[in-house]
Amino acid sequence: MLLAVVNANLCFCIIDVGAYGRGSDGGTLRESAFGHAIQEGTLGVPPHAIIPGAEDLRPLPHTFVGDEAFPLRRHLMCPYPGRNLCRRRRMFNYRMSQARMVVEQAFGVLAARFRIY
Asked: What is the C-alpha separation between 113 and 102, in angstroms, rounded?
């Protein structure tokens, strides 16, 4: 199993390889060096910052985006579970899926370039 952090420019910033495929995504994250660093606060996540173009908002935290298989953590955002969600939660989940598409695109580029994965 492969865990990866990809930035908005489709660059792999962090990868963690080595877990067996039959484990859960949440369990794999918990046991990985990346997961330990998130839990212990040693990963070096930047401090809260103002988002350009949204200066009227308070500083917002840097977060990682995961799918529904990952647990909700301080620096890990996940979609709302379930099917019968209110409009606001459905919209949030849609926007989360758009953010996760960056990771899918990065793996697509990787697979096309090296013909692996």
From this structure: 16
